[in-house]
């Protein structure tokens, strides 16, 4: 992830972009991916994220804390015997998705 004071990296050649995805418009899900240091984002997402960093410079840390809470909550619930989870507004499938965390706790999930 770029430093909030640094301009976003140039757009790489992305042959994996699904048809119909408008990469010129920022997407909250892709911006969240960028906050987390992911690779499923585009220049428009990075530009928008950088603009938000001027108002909320701690946003990348807040996003990482949010993911850490999700991991702790799912592990705790899975350890308590919960076997069904609904992840509403999950955005892009980042590494460590709810189902992956639950399956770590119990591979039968």
Automatic annotation (TrEMBL):
Residues that span the membrane, as ranges: none
Superkingdom assignment: Bacteria
Region annotation Disordered: where it falls in the sequence: 1-29
Record InterPro entries: SAM-dependent_MTases_sf, SAM_dep_MeTrfase_SAV2177_type
Signal peptide coordinates: none
Enzyme class: transferase
EC numbers: 2.1.1.-
Key words, A-Z: Methyltransferase, Transferase
GO molecular function, one term: methyltransferase activity
GO biological process, one term: methylation
One family name in Pfam for this protein: Methyltransf_19
Coiled coil: none
Protein name as annotated: SAM-dependent methyltransferase
Organism: Actinoallomurus acaciae
